[in-house]
């Protein structure tokens, strides 16, 4: 990415990917290119063809990576261009690791950490309901 940014020598606010005329690529053009390269990558990694890879998925994945790295949701909202920070809260709801860390902080001191593992007897009872 650094090489591409240096090569294009654009201004900070300039589009990252441009058309022949220097205008920003449309969303459709970006989706078309992504689909093309996912198809090519599928030749090397066949399981990729079973996945839904879209610009939205990449955007969501980037937001989740930032969240896992400990970046504040207000910064993620700015990075994603959200008008409202509350829009970014959906990533908090989607992240089970954050929920587990929050629960771990509330665990009484006398209990051992970890997930609950039901016994086979309990599972059989629940399945019979």
Quick rundown:
The protein is mostly helical. The protein contains seven helices and no strands.
**Rg on CA atoms, Å:** 22 Å
Q: What is the approximate shape?
A: elongated
Number of helices: 7
Oligomerization? single chain
Structural class: mainly alpha
Give the helices and strands as they follow along the chain: HHHHHHH
How would you characterize this protein structure?
With 129 residues, the protein is mainly α. The chain contains 7 helices and no strands. It has helices at residues 2-8, 27-42, 55-68, 73-80, 89-94, 96-106, 120-128. The longest helix is centred in the N-terminal third of the chain and has 16 residues, at 27-42. 2% of the residues are buried. The model has no long low-confidence stretch (mean pLDDT 84).
Jot down its keywords.
elongated, mainly alpha, 7 helices, 129 residues
Sequence-ordered SSE layout with sheet pairings:
Layout: H1 2-8, H2 27-42, H3 55-68, H4 73-80, H5 89-94, H6 96-106, H7 120-128
């Amino acid at each position: 990415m650094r090489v591409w940014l240096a090569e294009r020598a654009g201004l900070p606010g300039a589009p990252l990917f441009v058309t022949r005329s220097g205008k920003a690529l449309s969303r459709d053009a970006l989706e078309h290119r992504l689909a093309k390269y996912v198809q090519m990558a599928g030749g090397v990694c066949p399981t990729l063809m079973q996945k839904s890879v879209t610009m939205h998925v990449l955007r969501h994945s980037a937001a989740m990576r930032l969240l896992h790295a400990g970046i504040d949701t207000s910064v993620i909202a700015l990075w994603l261009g959200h008008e409202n920070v509350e829009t970014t809260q959906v990533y908090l709801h989607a992240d089970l690791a954050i929920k587990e860390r929050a629960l771990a902080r509330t665990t009484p001191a006398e209990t051992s950490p970890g997930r609950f593992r039901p016994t086979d007897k309990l599972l059989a009872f629940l399945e019979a309901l």
